[in-house]
């Protein structure tokens, strides 16, 4: 089956695989080549797949997985690929934590801009 992992700026993976393991809100699931078609909302965590080169891992942010015919397509905002599960876990925590901090700062700045805009509108009334 074909695995495609799509990020907002690039295609991270586009290759043949024999097995995919992902995690949704209600737990982990495995997809094999003859699995039925379905859609799942994935939660942040470790995504694994097996190809001719062995098992590989992705640390992913939340995303959507679509299994249709012989193609599994995953769309996510952030993903990190590795064969070393221990290193990947640390990298994911560090990378996603840094991104979360930047997102918090951005949200704070946006909230301040919105408040300033609302205040200026009310002052003109």
Automatic annotation (TrEMBL):
SUPFAM superfamilies in alphabetical order: Epsilon subunit of F1F0-ATP synthase N-terminal domain (SSF51344)
Classification via InterPro entries: Alt_ATP_synth_F1_esu, ATP_synth_F1_dsu/esu, ATP_synth_F1_dsu/esu_N, ATPsynth_dsu/esu_N
Annotated keywords: Ion transport, Membrane, Transport
Annotated ranges, domain ATP synthase F1 complex delta/epsilon subunit N-terminal: 1-79
Coiled-coil features, chain-numbered ranges: none
One Pfam family it belongs to: ATP-synt_DE_N
Cellular location(s): Membrane
NCBIfam families on file: alt_F1F0_F1_eps, PRK06228.1
Family: Belongs to the ATPase epsilon chain family.
Protein name (Swiss-Prot/TrEMBL): F0F1 ATP synthase subunit epsilon
Species this chain originates from: Candidatus Methanocrinis alkalitolerans
Highest classification ranks of the organism: Archaea, Methanobacteriati, Methanobacteriota, Stenosarchaea group, Methanomicrobia
């Amino acid at each position: 089956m074909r695995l495609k992992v799509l990020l907002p700026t690039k295609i991270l993976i586009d290759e043949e695989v024999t097995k995919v393991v992902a995690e949704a809100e209600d737990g982990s699931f495995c997809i094999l080549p003859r699995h039925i078609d379905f859609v799942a909302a994935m939660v942040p965590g470790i995504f694994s797949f097996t190809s001719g080169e062995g098992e590989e891992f992705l640390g992913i942010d939340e995303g959507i997985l679509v299994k249709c015919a012989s193609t599994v397509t995953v769309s996510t905002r952030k993903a990190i690929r590795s064969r070393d599960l221990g290193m990947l876990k640390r990298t994911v925590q560090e990378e996603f934590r840094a991104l979360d901090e930047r997102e918090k700062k951005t949200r704070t700045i946006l909230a301040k801009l919105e408040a300033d805009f609302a205040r200026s509108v009310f002052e003109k009334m």
